[in-house]
Amino acid sequence: MKRFLSAVAVAALLGAAESHAQLPAGDLRLWLKADSLQVAEDAPITQWVDSSSYGTTFAPRTVRWDGTTPVEEQPHLQTVTVNGRTFPTVKFERNGALPSGDPGVDRSGNTDRLFQTSNLAPGSNPLAIVDGTSMTSFTVFKPNITTSGALGAQAVWALRGNDASLMEVGINPVGRLNHVSYDAYVGYQTQATIPAGKWNVLEYALTEQSPFDAVTFRSNSTEDASAPLTNLPVATNGGVIADRNDGINEEPAGSLEPFGIGGHAQNCCGEGETFAGNIAEIIIYARVLTPAETEQVYAYLSDKYLAVPEPASALAVLTGMGGVALIRRRLAAGK
Description:
- The chain is α+β, with helices and mostly antiparallel strands.
- The chain is built from 4 helices and 17 strands.
- It has helices at about 1-20, 290-305, 310-320, 320-330, and strands at about 30-35, 50, 55-60, 75-80, 85-90, 115, 135-145, 155-160, 165-170, 175-180, 185-195, 200-205, 215-220, 230, 240, 260, 275-285.
- Strands 1, 4, 5, 7, 12, 13, 14, 15 and 17 form a 9-stranded antiparallel beta sheet that branches. An 8-stranded antiparallel beta sheet has the order 2-3-6-16-8-9-10-11, with no helix packed on it.
- Strand 4 and strand 5 form a beta hairpin.
């Protein structure tokens, strides 16, 4: 009986690891993982490709939205360690309110951003998740600052236009998470603030409830993998927004609106509302997830980035012939 139970226990452990290896299926629109990047430590990120079926590409700009002013906006790969677990991240630096620099000289600019460069055609953009469709996202990120003073608000990532904000993980100048709507010039912000210098696993969702969509933020900012996602109530207007459409794909006029990482493209203020910190993973669905699916994604992310690594002896059970040998020794000893 001991032999049978030991085999079952190993199979269960292997099954649990495998179950977290993939995300729930259906309407996955974006899956950006820093561990998919094949670049050296501190190397500039010239392209970040979505791991979902859409394969959307993101790259830094070389000129501002005026089409003439050169900029250098390349983020860099930075490996970090949290709770003894080491993983790659994309580091975004922000040293000034407006972008600048020589695109041929790394780190000559004063802000870092990546923008969507493919799948931009109206009607086929997987990230144009407009009014009438729900959206659920997860982001693993660490802000360097959350009270941003003269530099203003930060956009960790966003898809915004002149007249509306389809979606946005923003940090306002006093450290509250927010979604900005330019239908009514309202920032839908959380009552609680998030800490600087801490890794966050954030769930941010817009749930279709015509004629008003619910805006929700839930976060684990403790760097403890066992902590749950905690609801952060959205104080503004009860956390509902009336419209997320407004022809977003035609803004700014004459161009197609790109999804931005580390900032946004809105031509009123997109040159200054940039992010300072690190991003490890972004996941976006064009639907509401079930509670079980939400738990699956959260378990995958918290295990991947926050959980204390297993001791070498436990890892041996799960990997290779060393694991088989260890199991045999324990079975032979009657354990």
